[in-house]
Amino acid sequence: MSHSLLDSLHAAVPALRLKTDPGDLEHYGRDWTRRWTPNPLAIALPGSVEEVQAVMRWASEQAVKVVPSGGRTGLSGGAVAANGELVLSLERLNKPLSFDRVDRTLTVQAGMPLQAVHEAAREQGLVYPVDFAARGSCSIGGNIATNAGGIHVIRYGNTREWIAGLKVVTASGELLDLNRALVKNSSGYDLRQLMIGSEGTLGIVVEATLRLTDPPPPSNVMLLALPSFEVLMEVFAAFRQRLQLEAFEFFTDIALRHVLAHGAAKPFEEVHPYYVVTEFAIGDEAGEAAVMAAFEDCMAHGWVSDGVISQSDAQARQLWRLREDITEALAPHVPYKNDVSVRISQMPVFLAQTMQLLGEAYPHFEVVWFGHIGDGNLHINVLKPAGMAQADFVRDCEQVTRLLAQVLKRHGGSISAEHGIGLVKKAYLDSTRSPAEIALMRGIRQAMDPAGLLNPGKLFDP
């Protein structure tokens, strides 16, 4: 059956590049979750928008389900192909297309890595400000599909704020040109925004027009050591009051221990229970004085135990490495990940309740905390004990995730801050969305993909 389907696909799209080797099927059929056994039909690597359209027309005629694929750096199972789907990888559509100096927009293909987008923007004397640790491997299309956030959301917001226009291929192979980079456009529903965060369930993003902005002012990076969890939000308030914050990132001593074992340099002689990496604009003597005023105020109140401020770009990168290398350092330990958010004002109470919940529920597990405190986003990583079976570990973790979802619901939070729902979190979607909202989402999906071909099983079941 698979040979017959692939023969018909080759006939429909003769120039299409296909991969069917077992190693390729495994590589392209999964994302960073590693919880499902990949089992795709094949890997299609179109070289043009027209080939993407042709593949989707073929899929519609043959009733073949399709999983769009970017860099596959997601943590929610959103790019998993485990049930014979065709993986449609956009990695060959990876180039910049045009730059408009007047509009200050950069149009790129969806498979372009985020780091390459940054470099293309810098060549024009501008920046694309969305950024995170996976910049070298994630793709702009995947960022759009999950409305990715990252480390500078506190200053610049999520991906959604920087998308001026999209070209999207529908399940039937039609090409939609959404918003066309207009600043003002009140002509009905904004389908561009609907596509952002839809996880490839409504259409396949093939091109994006990105808004660029001026480079940020000179900045410094500071690492702060905190004596207790309770003072975290006090430190945030003190620095935000005095400084133009670019980032405010939190992690625990356990996270630091794993990063140091991964090769990072030890920042302090003493071990402290909590740490913050913060980046802030600083351009003159008044800015430098504001930094020291914030630091000294926190020291005087006992909110900060120690600190170090970068004296060079190299040192700034070393300090950022302590936060950005956490995910990579934890990977060998097969972590179970939660990626949640609440309003910033709700963060202190939510953190206290969640820490108590996880301390009681995971007494025999190592739990690693880190996140974007400045925008209410927290990452919770539970590490699998060496002798525990993976299935037993996931079962125990999912029981506690159900409790965590209830806490989030009480605080009006989200079970997914920036990685999407995918397969991992769809059982908890109702903790974030009401029954009426979910019904409307189902209706939208049905209207745009009535045969259910695009990324089946993600977000919710049919």
UniProtKB/TrEMBL annotation:
Keywords: FAD, Flavoprotein, Oxidoreductase
InterPro entries for the chain: FAD-bd_oxidored_4_C (IPR004113), FAD-bd_PCMH (IPR016166), FAD-bd_PCMH-like_sf (IPR036318), FAD-bd_PCMH_sub1 (IPR016167), FAD-bd_PCMH_sub2 (IPR016169), FAD-linked_Oxase-like_C (IPR016164), FAD-oxidored/transferase_4 (IPR051264), Oxid_FAD_bind_N (IPR006094)
GO biological process: respiratory electron transport chain
Cofactors required: FAD
Residues annotated as domain FAD-binding PCMH-type: 36-215
Family note: Belongs to the FAD-binding oxidoreductase/transferase type 4 family.
Name used for this protein in its record: Oxidoreductase
Originating species: Pseudoxanthomonas spadix (strain BD-a59)
